[in-house]
Amino acid sequence: MSARRAAGRLAITPSLTPRSLEKRGTPAKVWQARIITLFPEAFPGVLGLSLTGKALKEGLWGLEAIDLRPFGIGKHRNVDDTPAGGGAGMVLRADVLGRAVEMTMRGAPEDRAEWPLVCLSPRGRPFTQAMAQRWAGARGVTMICGRFEGIDQRVIDHFGIEEVSLGDFVLTGGELAAQAMLDATVRLLPEVLGNAASVEEESFSSGLLEHPQYTRPAEWEGREIPPVLMSGNHGEIARWRQAQAEELTRARRPDLWAAYQARKG
Q1: For the chain, what is the domain count?
Q2: How do residues 202-239 score in pLDDT, each as one tens digit?
């Protein structure tokens, strides 16, 4: 198997000792995602489709899903226990998750700017386009997919884990959130999209929502493409798109509009 093919294949690690970066057959320069999860079979999921899936197969990035269960305690490999102080639900144990994090981070840079270590949590900082750009500029990212009532706070404090949220809602686990965040990040990697301009012009890249898009047919159900887009005047088209982006942002996202105005001022 060639190194290039191995770099892009999904690797599921069922053992207590995930392969080190140097032993994975993955070029050091290839961006890597490592996912600690109780459901490694959930990956690559949608990440294996379309452009991200093609890039994964071509070795433009790598994905490794690390099964948390083998790190568990006792005959049944328990990974959770009841909350200290009482309460509903279960919490992922510090000793179990701590071992998993230590093993998973072997071979990764200690500098969190080069290799972020994050936990998907509804109480985390909201995930943004800027965060995706920051992660894409690193060498890789390790994500912990939370389950149950969350993870023992001591693990977060000990490893300096960054808590990140997909939005103001609660999922049954972090796997879907991880896939969404990875999709947003991987598409920013060089050569994945193949058209850098499309990234520069889309929503949030400039602090504004993206302008409306149109294509053939020129008329549909009595609705025509705005004439300016058919004029061939690129200056007028650019001005129209900017005005539309500003109007949409002002109407739909007052928070983004206020931040945009503050940067301009």
Answers
A1: 2
A2: 557 678 999 999 999 999 999 999 999 999 999 999 99
Q: Which residues in 153-171 are b (16+ Cβ under 10 Å) and which e?
A: eebbeebebbbbbbeeeee
| 8 and 128 part of one domain | yes
Residues 96, 66 contacting (CB under 8 angstroms): no
CATH of the domain at 212: 1.10.1270.20
Which of these, 71, 126, 124, 59, lies nearest to 98 by C-alpha position? 71
Residue 40 confidence (pLDDT) above 70:
yes
- 132 shares its domain with 250: no
**Which residues pair with residue 235 across a beta bridge?**
none
Lookup result for tokens 């305690």 = 73
Which pTM value belongs to this model?
0.85
Residues 98, 223, single domain; the answer is: no
Q: What H or E segment, with its residue span, contains residue 104?
A: helix 94-104
106 shares a domain with 206: no
- Give the C-alpha separation, 184 to 128, whole Å: 9
User: Same domain for 208 and 132?
Assistant: no
Q: Which of 180, 40, 164, 53 is nearest to 104 (CA)?
A: 40
Contact in structure between 82 and 36 (CB atoms under 8 Å): no
